[in-house]
Structure formats: C-alpha cells, structure tokens
Amino acid sequence: MGWSTSQLADLAGTTLRTIRHYHDVGLLAEPERRANGYKSYGVPHLVRVMRIKRLTDLGLSLTQIADLGDGDEHPGEALRELDAELAATIERLQRIRAELAVILRQEAPTDLPADVAAMISEANLSPQDRSFTVVLAQLLSPETLTRYAETLKGYSKDPAVVEFDTLPEDADEQTRQSLAERMRAMPYMAEMRAAFPDAAGLYSDAPRGVEHAKRTVIKVMVELYNKAQLDVLVRMSG
Fold it and tell me: Residue limits of the HTH merR-type domain (predicted)?
C-alpha cells in the first residue's frame, strides 16, 4: 500500500504545502488514487521529492529543476553554473566585508567608497564640498576619483576656504576677486592643477560620457553654491 500525502511529506522531511506546490508547478507527477479517492504515493514519488529537495537545498530554483526534466541524469551543467554564480557571490561578499572592515575601523562615512572616504577623512570638507565629492563619485571613473581624492588630502581649512564657505551672495566685486586670488594660490589648488592640467581631464574617462558629467556637475554646483561663490570659482579658473 502506498503513502498518503502527509506520510510522503513526513518521510521527505517537508510539508504538505510543499508537496502540493510541487504538483501545482509540474515538478511532481500526480499519483494513482485509492478506491476511496485518496492519493497513493510510491517510492518513485519519494525519490523525486528527495531529489527536488536536495537540489533546492543546494541552491537551484524550481524553474531550473523543472528544466532538468524528470530523468535521473546527473545535473552537471546546472550545478557548474550554480557553482560559478556562488563563486561570484562569495567574491562580492568578500569585497563587501573588506569595505565594511575599513568603514568600521575608521568610522568612515557610508556615502563614499571606503578608500576614497579614508583619503578625505582629514580634509574637513564643508557640507557643500562633501556633497559635491559624493556626486563626483557617481560620475568619475574609479581611477580618476582616486586621483581627485588624493589631491584632497592636502585640503585644509585655510582662512580663504573658511571665507568661501561663508561668503554671502551679495559679496562685492573686490571681495570676490581677492578671495579668488587667495584660493588660487593655495597649495591644494596647485596639486589639483598638477593632477588635472586641463579641467576637462577630470571627466575624460567618465563612464557615462564627458557631456553628461559636465551637465551634472554644473547643475550640482548651482544648487550647492550661491552666486557669489560660483563667481569666485569662475575667477579662480580664469
């Protein structure tokens, strides 16, 4: 005499609901029924359920198992694909753990790549400058972003920087020109010019293209800095 659905589920270490789901999705053939109308499962059903359960435990989806068919052939190709996916996942998780270690060790912020955040941790950027750097991290190639962050190591709260951060929008012409000259003479600016002799070079290898990077930077700067500050930045580059 065969097993009932509940007995099959118990033997396979699963649930009635799971057995019924296997039927619904076509993974498990319907058994014969007894005279009283109840299902009667045999050894092939138990073996099939155990195979499905084992493959799902390994990580195959029910769709992948369905693609294998009802045979008992060794699913080598599917398992090799799964192994490759798991290897990629493990590599990604290891990278995440390494980054988390840096963030936790240095109490680094989470809005920038860990290595970049570490480089600028001593820069003492203003909220506006920091927001600008976060946006750049989305626009620049990793290599260019690293070069940019390296120049920020020498950035400090120079009196001219402090004045720029608090510059009112109605600052007069003389104040703007004087501030632009003093900021242009800062060592940080010399490092920036050395790293990027051509201002456009900052975006030359931008993943989404030079024009997209330029448009985004202009939009961000207009939002972050007032008109007087923008004027000072223009004078600095002139």
Answer: 1-71
